[in-house]
From TrEMBL:
Name under which the protein is recorded: Arginine beta-hydroxylase, Fe(II)/alpha-ketoglutarate-dependent
A GO MF term: iron ion binding
SUPFAM superfamilies: Clavaminate synthase-like
Annotated Fe cation binding sites: 168, 170, 316
Pfam families per UniProt: TauD (PF02668)
Lineage: Bacteria, Bacillati, Actinomycetota, Actinomycetes, Kitasatosporales
Binding positions for 2-oxoglutarate per the UniProt entry: 194, 330, 334
Keywords: Iron, Metal-binding, Oxidoreductase
Keyword hit for Kinase: no
Start and end residues of each stretch annotated as Disordered: 1-21
Keyword set includes Iron: yes
């Protein structure tokens, strides 16, 4: 765990970042730093209409540099490190009473109590890259919500609860997937764990590595992009044609890309398969599945914790839990971040064949 040292009075040196000892890089804010970040987000919530409004999307990366210096230093240095699976910032204040009840559905999750926290997550994201959303996911919202939905307990999407959310690269089916997935925990009373794992390089033999670097695998969109999981008014959007094409006729891709000693990972435990009839690819994928299963570890995000998962180096999931449906359920805000928005230029230029990005 990486945490900047504090004095006996709880004040941290302004530019200190310690040596990592866990698979994620971590910073705990001082009360003064947390209050400053929250105040900045609150001012944004008063000035701007919504987090995904055009004006705030343009201004957020600049406003983010008004965040506390030690926080900005941590994010900049951790982003350039090659080792962490996630960047974690703890200590953001959440007034549970003002937050209100956990919504029963993501459609009603843009609540007054959670509004400043959505802006806070956007400001954090602005220190890492450009945010984006999917026209085919939660009606195209840029800041989305993760919470249990009654009737969806055993689905393969984040609204599930009793069903463990299997490990995956976020939106692995798309070449325009996020570089980071940001999670801000608004409430987690039962300490439900996020699961993480990196590429188990030390346990992969040379031939299996060779195969995983070859375009011999099919990855389909997960169910969150289906029309049925969006509002009725959104279901006629042309972007769903790209999702249908990706589901029906996925193009072969490689599971591993980049440098052999430090590859990027692209896989979804529930939606990946070998190309038809490719037994060697099937064996390689089976080996990878077993090794990732064996190397999963847990990261618990308490109320106010923020995590940015490196979607290139790690897969993530979530342990199963018993939903309450009493207004006290686990609730997170989620965001997608890219280091190069122009990489997906076709998507936001309106080409429906490029899988629904906006």
């Amino acid at each position: 765990m990486t945490e900047s040292p504090t004095t006996h009075h709880g004040a941290a040196p302004p530019d200190s970042v310690a040596t990592p000892v866990r698979p994620w890089s971590e910073l705990r804010l001082t009360p003064a730093e947390a209050a400053a970040a929250a105040a900045l987000a609150a001012r944004c919530a008063q000035r701007y209409d919504e987090t995904d409004g055009p004006e705030f999307l343009l201004d957020a990366p600049v406003i983010a540099h008004e965040m506390p210096r030690r926080l900005r230093t941590f994010m900049a240095r951790a982003r350039l490190d090659a080792w962490p699976h996630a960047l974690v910032v703890r200590g953001n204040p959440v007034d549970d009473a003002s937050l209100g009840s956990t919504p029963v559905h993501w459609r009603t999750a843009r609540t007054p109590g959670s509004r400043p926290l959505s802006f806070l997550l956007m400001l954090y994201a602005g220190l890492l890259g450009d945010v984006f959303g999917w026209a085919t996911q939660q009606d195209g919202r840029v800041v989305t919500d993760v919470l249990p939905i009654k009737g969806g307990e055993h689905t393969l999407v984040s609204s599930s609860s009793r069903q463990e959310l299997g490990w995956h690269t976020e939106d692995a089916f798309s070449p325009y997937r996020a570089d980071y997935v940001g999670l801000l925990s608004l409430r987690n009373p039962d300490g439900v764990a996020t699961t993480l794992a990196g590429v188990p390089l030390d346990d992969l033999d040379e031939r299996t590595l060779d195969v995983l670097f070859q375009e011999r695998f099919l990855i389909r969109p997960d169910d969150s992009h289906l029309q049925v999981n969006n509002s009725t008014a959104q279901q006629g959007r042309v972007e769903f044609e790209g999702i249908a094409q990706a589901a029906d006729r996925p193009e072969p891709v490689a599971i591993l890309t980049g440098h052999r000693a430090a590859p990027h990972l692209r896989v979804d435990g529930d939606f990946s398969a070998p190309a038809e009839g490719d037994e060697e690819a099937a064996a390689a994928l089976g080996t990878l599945r077993k090794l990732i299963d064996a190397s999963l570890y847990e990261l618990v995000l308490d109320q106010g914790d923020v995590a940015f998962i490196d979607n290139r180096r790690a897969v993530h999931g979530r342990r199963a839990f018993q939903p309450r449906y009493d207004g006290r359920d686990r609730w997170l805000k989620r965001i997608n971040i890219t280091r190069d928005l122009h990489r997906s230029r076709k998507a936001w230029a309106g080409d429906s064949r490029v899988l629904g990005q906006r």
